[in-house]
Every structure is written in C-alpha cells, then in structure tokens.
Design goal:
The protein is of the alpha+beta class. α8 crosses α12, α11 runs antiparallel to α14 and α12 packs across α15.
Length: 731
C-alpha cells in the first residue's frame, strides 16, 4: 500500500519552506471536512520533525512531533479522526472516510515513532483496498465482486476451464451432432412414408414394414446415443465439480485466518459443496443439451428455408418478441439469484451454528427459540423462492406463447398451399415437424439465461475464493531446515484491524529451549503473539525471526512440522482416539502412539474406553471429559515431537487432580523445547525461565517469577489479586 503519494504542486510549494529541506516520509490523502462532508483535496504530510495537515491550498495544522506524545487514528461510525496527543490532551486534526482509514493509520503509526525519537520507517504489506479497474472499495477481499461478477468474463473463464477436458467435450459434441442429424432425418423419412405410401393408397404392407424397420433402427440408434450422451455428460460434470471442489478446499487451507475469520463457515461450506454441485448440474442438464439443441435448430432452420423460405419466415415471425423479453429481464434475474443464494447462506450458517452449539442450546432450554429463528430464515428463503418461481413461470409462459405462435401461421398458410397443390401433405407435416423442432431449441434458449445465471453466480462465488490472494505463500527460496528454537520479535506491531493495533512495538528474544510465560489481562495480546509465531497472520510492521531467519522466509511446512500446540479449547476430530493422536504424524507406528499417550498420562483412561484406542470420540470429542480431551491433545503434541511448543491456557477449568496429571505430562513435553505458555493460574508459571507481562498492547515487564514479585509491578498485582480471590473462595 502506497504511504507516500506525490503532493500536488500547490501544496508541495506551500510546505517546502516549512519542512526546511527534510524529505517527506509519509504523504497520504484525506477526503472529509470538519463537518463530515466530502472535500477530496486534503493531504497529510509527515517529515521526521513535523506533521502537516493541508486542505484547500492552506496549511490547516502544523504539528511539531518533538512536542507531541502520540498520534491517534480513531475509527468512528462512518469515518475516522486523526488527533495529536500533547501532555495528556488530544487535539483534533482532521476527519476522513473509512476508505483512507488503513493508509492514514499507518502514517499515524510512523509519525508516532518519530514522536518517540525512533527514525524507523513503517512499511505497509497491505494490498490496496480499492479496485484498480473500477475504483470501488474492496469488501475485505482482494477480488472486486463488481468486476469479477461480469458474466462474460466468468463464462470465458469457465470455457477455459472446460478446455482442460478436451476429449470428453469433443466426444459429447460428436454424439450430439449425430443425435441432431438423426432427428432431422427422421422427419424426412416421415414425409416419404406419407407421400409415397399412405396418400396414394397404393403402398404395400412390405413398404410399410420397410419404413417401420428404418424408423426402428433410427429410434434404437438415438436411444443408444442418448444413453451414451447422458453417461459422458454425467462423467464430465462430476469431474469438473470434483476438481473445482478440490481446488476450492485446497485454496481455503492456504488462505490466512484474516480472510477465514471474515466469512461465515456455513457460507464457505456452501461454496465448496453446493456451488460446485450447481456446476455439475449445469453440465448434466444444460450443457449436454446445449449443443444438441443448437445442431437441431440449425438443421431444422436450413431444412425449412430450403423447403419454403416464406413459411419459414412466418414460423419465426414472433420469435424476436420472446428474445427481447428475455433480454429485458436479464438484470432482474441476476439480482433474484444472488438474493436467493445469500439467503441460503444464512440458512446454512444458522443451521451450522445451532448444530455446533447444540449442547448450549439444550442447556439453556432454547430449542423452541432457535427453531423459531430457523423457521424465520427458511420462511424468508421460501418466500424469495416462491416470488422467483412465479416470475419465471409468468415470463416463460409469455415467451413460449410468442415463440410458438408462428405454428398457427404455418398451419393456416401451409394448409392453403396443400389445397392449392403447391405442397404435399407429407411436406406440410415435415415442415410442421421442423417448426416444432425449431421451437424446442428456442424454448431451451429462453430457459438458458436462467441456467447460465445459476452457473455464473455459482462460479463467481467459487472464483471469489480461488482468486483471493494468498498472503502466507512461501517464497521461491523458502528455507527448510531443522530448527534450534531461538525466537526474536523485532519491533512487531499487529492488529486484526490495521488501525487498531493489538500488539505494538514488541521486542523480545527467546533462547533455544527457554520457557516463556505470557501474562496479561484479557485482550492484552497474549494469544495474538502465539498466533503470529504460528504464522496464522502476517505482522503489520516489524519482523519475527526463527534462528535468525525471518518467519516469512521459512517454508510453512518447515515451521508447522516443528511446532506443537496445546490449546485451551481442545479440538478433536470426529474419529477414533488413535486417529486424533496420530493427526500430526499420520505415518506414526502404533508403538509410538501408545508411548505418546503414556507420556501424556492418557493411556490408562484410553484403555478403559469401550474400544480402547479405536473408540470414536464423536464430534469435537464431546464424548470425553475436558481433561481427557486435553491429555489426548498433549499426546498429539508429544507424538509430533516439536522444537517449538505453544501452550495456551492448557490447564484452565480443570479440577485439581486432573490439572496435576496434565501438569506432569506438560513437564515431560516442555523439557528441552522452546516453549510459550499462557496460563490462567499464574502459579503454574513459577517454573518458567522468564515471564513476559503484556499491558496496553506492549511488553511492560520481563523477568523470572521471583524478580517480578520483588519489583511489585503489574505481575505482582495480578498474583496478589489471584491470591485474594482464592482466599475469598476458600472462605
């Protein structure tokens, strides 16, 4: 993201004598006046010594950074405010829209460093939040939904995808061409049967039998081709949907937690499963017919024009009206499908939330309330679907009427030609058959926009995932090596929202094999530190190094192969105990799995389960107690044998006996490993080599338990508060 724009000549000349030759380190635009109205001519320019706020060719504010304590970039309801803090008081500087929030927050962060005498430059790894093509603000993704949603572009991409399946496509095309040729030829045979055998009344039974045999052969060949076409189209649709589903799932695994946290899990599941299924349905139902209908339409039209071009034009007289109707309502169709699928996403989100949290729902007796809420969503979906179907039924009735009205003209004028002797009865029957064959494809074409709208909407939602930028991708020269475990946080700053840092200027070096306890109030940033170390998110500023190597230069496989995690909310997959322990090392032998369980104090209770290690634990492992799940998670980490270990509230909410067993297991696990431990009970961190206290998003204290207690600072206050709490509970 650009943090140093080029100032317009007027503003540049205005501040040139004021900045005394100092270069601009940051220069960003802002776009609101003091009343919140759009102005579009504001600039914030920062040197190492001065911050300028410019508007309308004047210097609105000039702030000496040496006299300032901090620069504050604060989000409000629909805009942001930049202020300077001096001597504990905040002074308003300017207002801007959320479009510029991230950019200005970076500039304010850099200016705040200058206030503290730090001359480092803040660099943004953020991508631009505005579409380079249309200028619209991006809704938390790297893909512009407006540009990506252009149907022609989506269909071109789909065609490029289909080209990878050339053999089945060519086979299908050949089959459909053959089927269409047979359909056209059948009408010719019918005409010859009427004119040569029936009308003269001189035909013989042998001739009837011959025509019957030819017709039977054509029907059997058509049936064989139809079955083959269905099999090939089903195979093609299944393969394409399978590949799309696999690519989408793989891409979801590559995307950062920032992206995944911004989406509902039910919505993502819909895109992986339902949208890929809609692509398959299109290939089976529409694509399989599309070329066949085109071939039939072209063949029938050519035959009609050759037989009687005037009747052919009469037969098509009202077709343009139906086509115009379809085009008129095309945009409305798009809105209808998107509205329906957004509602389907909400239904799936609600369903997944309730199923995942069914224990909470039942515990609080909220089954009826949740049922009502779910019915509200499904009723909304039903109403939207009903309105859509009424619209389609009405539109198709009108389109079908205009498309088929030409048949009446063909009957009237063609019948007159037969009476005048200008056309034989067989020719009229053949012409009417061709007319109906022509209307079939035209009716299919009238339904095709609906099918294409379903397809393109599903593809847009899939491509929205596939086109998302992978923020955590490995570089080409990624390092893969055995780690020793030295960790360095070098001036690390991070916020889940860039303009609201959770961690600021974190400086910490951890020696190999050292155990670090992380302490702080809720929301201080403890879990965020370990999330950054696991590279679930990228830092906004600064750098994390492992053994002196920047975290971004390590391959993700190298990092995650050598890092183990035991979290407070233990997640077990719906499978056996054995599979859950072996999750991090699927190829681990049985002997090592059992040994890991013994080291985690889990073997004894596992052997008492109905099927031992083959016992199914249920969804999220809810058939086991919290302590049992925790010990399985520890066994999983032990089997992984990591160099880096992360313990996030691993012993919270457990009874004393279970906590003792888990502490004993953790003691074996942490031995010789670089460990970061977050603990609710501060007494469990007494054995840590160092304790890091995080307060107000920064490191406030570092030392051993005894050192920090002697200082009587923040850590001392937290320990004493817990002791008082235990006394109150004991009383």
């Amino acid at each position: 993201m650009n943090l140093c724009f080029t100032l317009p000549e007027e503003e540049a000349g205005l501040i040139k004598p004021l900045r005394q030759g100092k270069p601009l380190r940051y220069c960003v635009p802002y776009d609101l006046d003091d009343d919140g109205e759009m102005c579009g001519d504001g600039w914030i320019a920062v040197t190492e010594e001065t911050l300028f706020v410019l508007k309308g060719g004047t210097v609105k504010h000039r702030v000496s950074l040496a006299e300032a304590d901090d620069l504050l970039c604060t989000p409000q309801v629909d805009s942001g405010v930049l202020a300077v803090r001096r001597n504990g008081e905040d002074q308003y500087l300017c207002r801007f829209s959320m479009r510029h929030m991230i950019r200005i927050s970076y500039a304010a962060r850099g200016a705040a460093l200058f206030c503290r005498g730090d001359r480092r430059t803040v660099e943004s790894r953020e991508r631009e939040k505005v579409c380079s093509r249309c200028g619209r603000v991006l809704p938390g993704t790297s893909v512009c939904p407006h540009c990506a949603g252009q149907r022609g572009r989506t269909l071109r991409r789909f065609w490029d995808l289909c080209r990878g399946y050339a053999l089945p496509l060519l086979t299908l095309t050949a089959i459909m061409a053959a089927m269409s040729g047979i359909s056209v030829f059948q009408q010719y045979i019918q005409r010859r049967f009427i004119d040569d055998v029936l009308v003269p009344a001189e035909g013989t039974l042998a001739e009837v039998g011959a025509f019957f045999a030819v017709a039977l052969v054509l029907v059997l060949v058509s049936l064989a081709l139809w079955i083959t076409n269905a099999l090939w189209s089903n195979s093609l649709g299944t393969r394409i949907s399978r590949d799309l589903r696999a690519r989408t799932f793989y891409k979801l695994n590559e995307l950062s937690m920032s992206f995944l946290n911004s989406r509902q899990s039910g919505e993502l599941m819909n895109r992986v499963v339902e949208d890929a299924t809609r692509v398959r349905e299109f290939m089976e139902q529409a694509f399989a017919q599309m070329f066949s209908q085109i071939f039939v339409m072209v063949g029938a039209l050519i035959a009609m024009l050759v037989m009687n071009w005037r009747l052919a034009l009469l037969g098509l007289a009202f077709a343009p009206v139906g086509i115009v109707l379809i085009r008129l309502f095309r945009r409305y169709e798009r809105r209808m499908w998107r509205k329906r699928w957004r509602t389907e996403d909400k239904v799936n989100d609600r369903l997944q939330d309730v199923i995942s949290g069914i224990r909470v729902v039942k515990s609080f007796g909220q089954e009826e309330r949740e049922s009502r809420r779910f019915h509200e969503y499904t009723d909304r979906l039903m109403e939207i679907t009903r309105r859509n179907e009424v619209f389609w039924a009405t539109l198709y009735a009108g389109v079908t009427f205009f498309l088929t009205s030409g048949t009446l003209l063909v009957i009237y004028f063609g019948g007159g030609d037969v009476l005048k002797g200008q056309m034989t009865p067989g020719e009229l029957v053949q012409f009417l058959a061709y007319t109906n064959m022509l209307y079939g494809p035209l009716q299919f074409v009238s339904r095709l926009p609906r099918m294409l709208m379903r397809l393109t909407t599903a593809l847009e939602r899939i491509y929205d995932i596939l086109d998302e930028e992978v923020q955590l991708a490995d570089p080409r020269d990624a390092v893969d090596k055995e780690l020793e475990g030295q960790i360095t946080f070098d001036n690390v700053t991070f916020g889940y929202k860039t303009y609201e840092p959770v961690l600021e200027n974190i400086e910490l070096t951890v020696r190999p094999g050292e155990m670090i306890g992380l302490v702080g109030s809720s929301g201080a940033g403890k879990s965020t530190m370990i999330n950054l170390l696991m590279r679930l998110y990228e830092v906004d500023d600064g750098e994390i190094r492992v053994d002196g190597i920047p975290l971004q230069q390590l391959s993700r496989d190298c990092l995650h192969r050598q890092i183990g995690v035991v979290l407070q909310e233990t997640f077990l997959f719906s499978g056996t105990v054995f599979d859950n322990i072996r999750f991090a090392r699927p190829d681990a032998p049985v002997r090592e799995v059992i040994q890991a369980a013994k080291m985690a104090n889990a073997h004894e209770f596992i052997t008492k389960l109905p099927d031992g290690y083959d016992t199914y634990v249920g969804e999220r492992g809810y058939t086991l107690s919290g302590g049992e799940r925790q010990r399985i998670a520890i066994a999983r980490a032990i089997l992984h044998n990591p160099r880096l270990l992360i313990l996030d509230e691993a012993t919270s909410s457990l009874d004393t006996e279970t906590e003792y067993q888990i502490q004993e297991a953790l003691g074996r696990l942490t031995h010789g490993r670089t460990t970061f431990a977050i603990a609710h009970r501060l007494s469990t961190l007494r054995e840590a080599d160092r304790i890091v206290v995080i307060d107000k998003h920064r490191i406030a204290e570092v030392g051993t338990h005894n050192e920090l207690m002697r200082r009587k600072g923040i850590y001392y206050g937290l320990v004493m508060a817990q002791l008082e709490m235990h006394k109150v509970r004991g009383a």
